[in-house]
Amino acid sequence: MHPTIGEYLSNIEVALRRIDQQAVQRVVDILFDACVSGRRVYTFGNGASAALASHMACDLGKGSAPDLGQGLHDAAATRLRIIALNDNAALMTAYGNDISYDDVYLEQLKNHLEPGDVVLGVSGSGGSPNVLRALEFARGRGAVVIGFTGRQAPAPRMAALCDVCLHAPLTMMEQIEDVHVIMHHAISIALRARVAAWHRALEPALAVAD
Q1: Between the N and C ends of the chain, which has fewer C-beta atoms within 10 Å?
Q2: What is the pLDDT of residue 106?
Q3: CA distance 197 to 193
């Protein structure tokens, strides 16, 4: 039986109180380190998780940039180098048609991934083959691996491949996706504040260099 509206919202409220906030903070730390060291971040998923991967690339890339709106002026601001692999429809469908849909992210990582880069896979179930294969490759290549998943039965498979795995403590896919978006927004806001503070601390040194 499907939950009523009140039950649905109550389940989300309870789940939010059970989120591992230390793990969320670790993701912020990893993304900040990637930003200031010039490492690249790759996100991907399927369906609504692909939409979230795109949402992440948008919010984290734009929101953490301290020099927005300055046009051609180069303020030497460090920006997060982040891209959603599922945004390239032509390449994804080429790999899916010619090789296997299971390898649409793995094959892209082979082109770009370097040790120390960050790979962030989103799978509500934790069992999406193309996400798991990409995460496994990333671990072997020396990347930092982050996962977003829920508490469905396959989730431990994904967690085993991750340095940090954020679990929405739910089994209903719609509710897992809701919590994923909230965790992402919390990460985005925290990262924005941290990068802005880092740049403010650098401003005196940049002024002397000029």
Answers
A1: N
A2: 98
A3: 6
